[in-house]
What we know:
By secondary structure, the protein is α/β, with parallel strands linked by helices. The protein has helices at about 10-15, 30-35, 40-45, 45-60, 65-80, 90-95, 155-165, 180-190, 215-225; strands at about 5, 80-85, 100-105, 105-115, 120, 140-145, 165-170, 190-195, 210. The longest helix has 15 residues, at about 45-60. Adenosine-5-diphosphoribose binds next to α1.
Amino acid sequence: MNIVVLTGAGISAESGVPTFRDADGLWEGHRVEDVATPAAFDRSPDVVHRFYDERRRMVQKVEPNAAHSALSRLEQMVGDSLLVITQNIDDLHERAGSRRVLHMHGELLSALCRACDGRFAWDDDLADFPPCPGCGYSELRPDVVWFGEMPYELDTIDRALQKADLFVSIGTSGAVYPAAGFVRAASAYGASTLELNLAPSEGSHFFDETRHGPAGTLVPHWVDELLG
Ligand code: APR
Protein backbone atom coordinates (compact mmCIF):
# COMPACT_ATOMS: atom_id res chain seq x y z
CA MET A 1 0.00 0.00 0.00
CA ASN A 2 1.46 3.38 -1.02
CA ILE A 3 0.98 6.07 1.61
CA VAL A 4 1.54 9.77 1.06
CA VAL A 5 1.53 11.98 4.14
CA LEU A 6 1.31 15.76 3.92
CA THR A 7 2.39 17.63 7.04
CA GLY A 8 2.05 21.26 8.09
CA ALA A 9 2.89 23.51 11.00
CA GLY A 10 0.49 21.64 13.32
CA ILE A 11 2.76 18.59 13.48
CA SER A 12 5.57 20.70 14.95
CA ALA A 13 3.33 22.72 17.29
CA GLU A 14 3.83 20.34 20.23
CA SER A 15 7.60 20.69 19.75
CA GLY A 16 7.18 24.41 20.43
CA VAL A 17 7.37 25.70 16.84
CA PRO A 18 4.62 28.29 16.39
CA THR A 19 2.06 27.73 13.61
CA PHE A 20 1.39 30.43 11.01
CA ARG A 21 -2.28 31.24 11.27
CA ASP A 22 -2.91 32.20 14.86
CA ALA A 23 -6.04 34.00 15.90
CA ASP A 24 -4.49 37.47 15.48
CA GLY A 25 -3.55 36.74 11.85
CA LEU A 26 0.07 37.67 12.47
CA TRP A 27 3.05 35.38 12.14
CA GLU A 28 5.11 35.96 15.26
CA GLY A 29 4.12 39.61 15.23
CA HIS A 30 4.85 40.11 11.51
CA ARG A 31 2.43 40.39 8.62
CA VAL A 32 3.29 37.55 6.26
CA GLU A 33 3.67 40.04 3.36
CA ASP A 34 6.39 41.83 5.32
CA VAL A 35 8.65 38.80 5.64
CA ALA A 36 7.59 35.97 3.32
CA THR A 37 7.54 37.47 -0.16
CA PRO A 38 10.30 38.22 -2.69
CA ALA A 39 9.20 41.89 -2.64
CA ALA A 40 9.77 42.05 1.14
CA PHE A 41 13.28 40.68 0.68
CA ASP A 42 14.08 43.18 -2.10
CA ARG A 43 12.72 46.01 0.06
CA SER A 44 14.36 45.11 3.38
CA PRO A 45 16.66 42.08 3.24
CA ASP A 46 17.95 42.80 6.75
CA VAL A 47 14.45 42.56 8.30
CA VAL A 48 13.70 39.33 6.44
CA HIS A 49 17.11 37.86 7.33
CA ARG A 50 16.69 38.71 11.01
CA PHE A 51 13.25 37.10 11.03
CA TYR A 52 14.51 33.82 9.51
CA ASP A 53 17.75 33.91 11.54
CA GLU A 54 15.62 33.93 14.68
CA ARG A 55 13.56 30.98 13.45
CA ARG A 56 16.72 29.10 12.38
CA ARG A 57 18.19 29.49 15.87
CA MET A 58 14.91 28.52 17.54
CA VAL A 59 14.43 25.40 15.45
CA GLN A 60 17.84 24.08 16.46
CA LYS A 61 16.72 24.22 20.10
CA VAL A 62 13.51 22.19 19.80
CA GLU A 63 13.03 18.44 19.54
CA PRO A 64 10.80 16.20 17.40
CA ASN A 65 7.61 15.04 19.14
CA ALA A 66 5.61 11.81 19.23
CA ALA A 67 3.98 12.56 15.86
CA HIS A 68 7.31 12.90 14.03
CA SER A 69 8.56 9.74 15.74
CA ALA A 70 5.46 7.77 14.75
CA LEU A 71 5.97 8.66 11.07
CA SER A 72 9.61 7.60 11.31
CA ARG A 73 8.51 4.30 12.89
CA LEU A 74 6.04 3.82 10.05
CA GLU A 75 8.80 4.37 7.49
CA GLN A 76 10.96 1.78 9.23
CA MET A 77 8.13 -0.74 8.81
CA VAL A 78 6.96 0.04 5.28
CA GLY A 79 10.08 1.59 3.72
CA ASP A 80 9.62 3.09 0.26
CA SER A 81 5.83 2.73 0.46
CA LEU A 82 5.72 5.89 2.59
CA LEU A 83 6.51 9.38 1.38
CA VAL A 84 6.28 12.42 3.67
CA ILE A 85 5.67 15.73 1.92
CA THR A 86 6.11 18.56 4.36
CA GLN A 87 5.27 22.24 4.10
CA ASN A 88 7.45 22.75 7.15
CA ILE A 89 10.87 24.30 6.88
CA ASP A 90 12.12 22.77 10.14
CA ASP A 91 14.13 19.52 10.13
CA LEU A 92 12.11 17.68 12.79
CA HIS A 93 11.03 14.82 10.48
CA GLU A 94 14.66 14.09 9.65
CA ARG A 95 15.76 14.38 13.27
CA ALA A 96 13.05 11.88 14.23
CA GLY A 97 14.61 9.48 11.70
CA SER A 98 12.46 9.88 8.57
CA ARG A 99 14.45 9.62 5.33
CA ARG A 100 11.84 9.93 2.62
CA VAL A 101 10.88 13.58 3.18
CA LEU A 102 10.22 16.27 0.56
CA HIS A 103 10.39 19.88 1.74
CA MET A 104 8.07 21.53 -0.75
CA HIS A 105 8.46 24.96 0.91
CA GLY A 106 12.23 24.71 1.34
CA GLU A 107 14.33 24.43 4.49
CA LEU A 108 15.46 26.81 7.21
CA LEU A 109 18.78 24.99 7.47
CA SER A 110 19.63 25.72 3.86
CA ALA A 111 20.74 28.88 2.06
CA LEU A 112 20.08 29.65 -1.58
CA CYS A 113 22.45 31.85 -3.59
CA ARG A 114 20.72 34.41 -5.81
CA ALA A 115 23.90 34.75 -7.88
CA CYS A 116 24.76 31.10 -8.68
CA ASP A 117 21.53 29.24 -7.64
CA GLY A 118 23.57 26.98 -5.35
CA ARG A 119 21.87 25.52 -2.25
CA PHE A 120 24.02 25.04 0.84
CA ALA A 121 23.45 23.42 4.23
CA TRP A 122 23.34 26.41 6.61
CA ASP A 123 22.84 26.56 10.38
CA ASP A 124 24.13 30.08 10.97
CA ASP A 125 22.77 33.61 10.58
CA LEU A 126 22.44 35.29 7.18
CA ALA A 127 21.79 38.86 8.35
CA ASP A 128 25.50 39.71 8.18
CA PHE A 129 25.46 38.87 4.43
CA PRO A 130 28.14 36.16 4.40
CA PRO A 131 29.73 35.19 1.04
CA CYS A 132 28.28 32.26 -0.88
CA PRO A 133 30.49 29.15 -0.43
CA GLY A 134 30.01 28.42 -4.14
CA CYS A 135 30.62 31.71 -5.97
CA GLY A 136 31.79 34.14 -3.28
CA TYR A 137 29.07 36.74 -3.87
CA SER A 138 27.11 37.93 -0.82
CA GLU A 139 23.77 36.98 -2.35
CA LEU A 140 22.53 34.28 0.01
CA ARG A 141 18.85 34.20 0.93
CA PRO A 142 16.82 31.77 3.05
CA ASP A 143 16.12 28.66 0.98
CA VAL A 144 12.41 28.92 1.67
CA VAL A 145 9.56 29.24 -0.80
CA TRP A 146 7.87 32.59 -0.40
CA PHE A 147 4.38 33.61 -1.49
CA GLY A 148 4.40 34.02 -5.25
CA GLU A 149 7.23 31.49 -5.72
CA MET A 150 7.00 27.96 -7.09
CA PRO A 151 7.18 25.17 -4.47
CA TYR A 152 9.86 22.50 -4.84
CA GLU A 153 9.31 18.96 -6.15
CA LEU A 154 5.82 19.43 -7.62
CA ASP A 155 6.41 16.84 -10.39
CA THR A 156 7.63 14.21 -7.92
CA ILE A 157 4.69 15.01 -5.65
CA ASP A 158 2.17 14.60 -8.45
CA ARG A 159 3.66 11.23 -9.40
CA ALA A 160 3.47 10.12 -5.75
CA LEU A 161 -0.18 11.23 -5.51
CA GLN A 162 -1.01 9.26 -8.65
CA LYS A 163 0.37 6.09 -7.06
CA ALA A 164 -1.06 6.69 -3.57
CA ASP A 165 -3.57 4.28 -2.04
CA LEU A 166 -3.87 6.43 1.08
CA PHE A 167 -3.34 10.18 1.50
CA VAL A 168 -3.07 11.55 5.04
CA SER A 169 -2.94 15.23 5.89
CA ILE A 170 -1.54 16.15 9.31
CA GLY A 171 -1.56 19.56 11.03
CA THR A 172 -2.26 21.84 8.11
CA SER A 173 -4.96 24.49 7.78
CA GLY A 174 -5.56 23.80 4.08
CA ALA A 175 -5.25 27.53 3.38
CA VAL A 176 -2.21 27.52 1.08
CA TYR A 177 -2.14 26.12 -2.45
CA PRO A 178 -0.95 23.97 -4.10
CA ALA A 179 -0.67 21.79 -0.96
CA ALA A 180 -4.31 22.49 -0.08
CA GLY A 181 -5.30 20.87 -3.39
CA PHE A 182 -3.44 17.58 -2.86
CA VAL A 183 -6.41 15.93 -1.13
CA ARG A 184 -8.64 16.44 -4.17
CA ALA A 185 -5.90 15.31 -6.55
CA ALA A 186 -5.25 12.18 -4.47
CA SER A 187 -8.98 11.42 -4.35
CA ALA A 188 -9.33 11.90 -8.08
CA TYR A 189 -6.41 9.51 -8.61
CA GLY A 190 -8.21 6.92 -6.45
CA ALA A 191 -6.66 7.21 -2.98
CA SER A 192 -8.54 7.10 0.32
CA THR A 193 -8.03 10.28 2.31
CA LEU A 194 -7.69 10.99 6.02
CA GLU A 195 -7.25 14.25 7.92
CA LEU A 196 -5.55 14.36 11.32
CA ASN A 197 -5.74 17.91 12.66
CA LEU A 198 -6.43 19.78 15.86
CA ALA A 199 -9.54 21.38 14.35
CA PRO A 200 -11.38 20.96 11.04
CA SER A 201 -9.23 22.51 8.29
CA GLU A 202 -10.59 24.65 5.47
CA GLY A 203 -10.72 21.53 3.29
CA SER A 204 -12.01 19.04 5.90
CA HIS A 205 -15.06 18.19 3.82
CA PHE A 206 -12.83 16.88 1.00
CA PHE A 207 -11.54 14.01 3.16
CA ASP A 208 -13.13 10.56 3.43
CA GLU A 209 -12.37 10.55 7.15
CA THR A 210 -11.33 13.26 9.62
CA ARG A 211 -10.06 12.92 13.18
CA HIS A 212 -9.55 15.94 15.38
CA GLY A 213 -7.07 16.28 18.23
CA PRO A 214 -3.38 16.94 18.84
CA ALA A 215 -0.99 15.32 16.35
CA GLY A 216 1.14 13.97 19.21
CA THR A 217 -1.78 11.71 20.16
CA LEU A 218 -3.59 11.12 16.85
CA VAL A 219 -0.56 10.19 14.73
CA PRO A 220 0.88 7.47 17.01
CA HIS A 221 -2.65 5.96 17.32
CA TRP A 222 -3.12 5.97 13.57
CA VAL A 223 0.29 4.37 12.99
CA ASP A 224 -0.44 1.68 15.61
CA GLU A 225 -3.76 1.00 13.93
CA LEU A 226 -2.16 0.75 10.50
CA LEU A 227 0.61 -1.56 11.64
CA GLY A 228 -2.01 -3.42 13.76
N1 APR B 1 -1.84 18.94 16.34
C1 APR B 1 -2.46 18.92 15.14
N2 APR B 1 -2.81 20.03 14.47
C2 APR B 1 -2.52 21.21 15.04
C3 APR B 1 -1.87 21.32 16.28
C4 APR B 1 -1.53 20.11 16.97
N3 APR B 1 -0.93 20.09 18.13
N4 APR B 1 -1.72 22.64 16.58
C5 APR B 1 -2.26 23.33 15.54
N5 APR B 1 -2.74 22.47 14.62
C6 APR B 1 -3.41 22.77 13.36
C7 APR B 1 -4.22 24.03 13.34
O1 APR B 1 -5.56 23.74 13.73
C8 APR B 1 -4.15 24.46 11.87
O2 APR B 1 -5.20 23.88 11.12
O3 APR B 1 -2.38 22.96 12.41
C9 APR B 1 -2.82 23.85 11.40
C10 APR B 1 -1.71 24.85 11.14
O4 APR B 1 -2.09 25.68 10.09
P1 APR B 1 -1.13 26.84 9.54
O5 APR B 1 -0.61 27.65 10.68
O6 APR B 1 -1.90 27.54 8.48
O7 APR B 1 0.12 26.05 8.93
P2 APR B 1 0.27 25.34 7.52
O8 APR B 1 -1.02 24.75 7.07
O9 APR B 1 1.44 24.45 7.62
O10 APR B 1 0.64 26.57 6.59
C11 APR B 1 0.91 26.32 5.24
O11 APR B 1 1.55 28.60 4.89
O12 APR B 1 2.67 30.58 5.44
C12 APR B 1 2.70 29.40 4.73
O13 APR B 1 4.65 28.45 3.86
C13 APR B 1 3.90 28.54 5.04
O14 APR B 1 4.10 26.14 4.93
C14 APR B 1 3.29 27.20 5.39
C15 APR B 1 1.94 27.26 4.72
